[in-house]
Amino acid sequence: MKSKILMLTLFLAATSASWTTFAGEGHSHGDEGPAAANTNGPARQPDGSVFLPKPAQRQIAVRTIVAETGELPRTLALAGRVAMDPNSGGKVQALVAGRLEAGPGGLPVSGQTVAKGTVLAYVVPSVDPIERSNQVAQLAELKATRSLAEKRLARLKDLADTVPRKEIEAAESELASLTARAKAVSGGLGNRDALVAPVSGAIASSNAVAGQVVDARELIFEIVDPRRMRVEALAYDTDMTSDIAGASIAVGESRVPLEFIGAARRLREQALPLSFAATGEALERLAVGQPLEVYVQTRSTIAGIRVPAASVLKNPANQTIVWVKTAAERFEPRTVTVAPLDGVTVAVTSGLATGERVATGAATLINQIR
């Protein structure tokens, strides 16, 4: 009995020893803490900064600029819209009511380029049946009278030696008058009103369908020059019109300068419309009536640092920030206040010091690192 107890005791001791040494190297025993975090990749640090290794910076194309303080124009962002330039655009309207027919090249569609003088479509006038019958009867009468006048003129010419010259001239004049009247009535019966492009440009809108019945003065086509536009902005402060030094709009990542034409002398929706002229290839991405922001620069200035608008982001607390490169692989967020400039760049008025390197390219990706 004692020998059995001794053998059982030895077996349990051996088994417990094997349990403590069963797990191999690198395996969890259940009483260890979590594995250490990987510090070789991009990571957000406890103080809010971002650790971004050089290989990762090259992969996401990080770019920085050196902050420089200067005097920048005070800018106001106004609500505006794209309008047609009346000198380079035009409207095509029907002069008479009738049925629409395709032109020599077919009916143009929106976006198609046309040249000045191109026949876009025809309008076959609609005539009352009774009026048309009267015109047909009048034409038949004129043709019969003209036939008699031709015969009378031929007889007078045969008797030219005995008939006064004035009678022959009167007969010729009567025949010419009857011919012109018959031609006018005939043209009125089969005439078509040609819709001609008043300017060269692109079709901005088309309301034409073959066989469509249109009314007089109805808009059929609208033509614009996509490289020449007008921009209208609404100013609620009428005093600013005398302090405008320049203006611009942002089209994608491009800045399009505007030429200030003048201010209206009548309020619209309690605001004063301002007119600007714009030219350039970037305008081809805009459409007539498209809303946009117009950045109007005044003659007064503010002290600030010019940075790209893409560098200005929001943190989880909805604060405006920029990312500053403080070390080779370290970026820190800086809370800043900004003012608009031209739609492509903004002015940082506080929170940033001269000489600091601000992240421009891939700033959005840096802001997403967690």
Automatic annotation (TrEMBL):
Signal peptide: 1-23
Record field: transmembrane: none
Signal keyword on record: yes
UniProt entry keywords in alphabetical sequence: Signal, Transport
SUPFAM superfamilies: HlyD-like secretion proteins
GO cellular component: cell envelope
Residue ranges annotated for the CzcB-like C-terminal circularly permuted SH3-like domain, each copy included: 307-361
InterPro entries the record matches: CzcB_C (IPR058649), MFP_Cation_Efflux (IPR051909)
Protein name, UniProt field: HlyD family efflux transporter periplasmic adaptor subunit
Naturally occurring in which organism (per UniProt): Denitromonas halophila
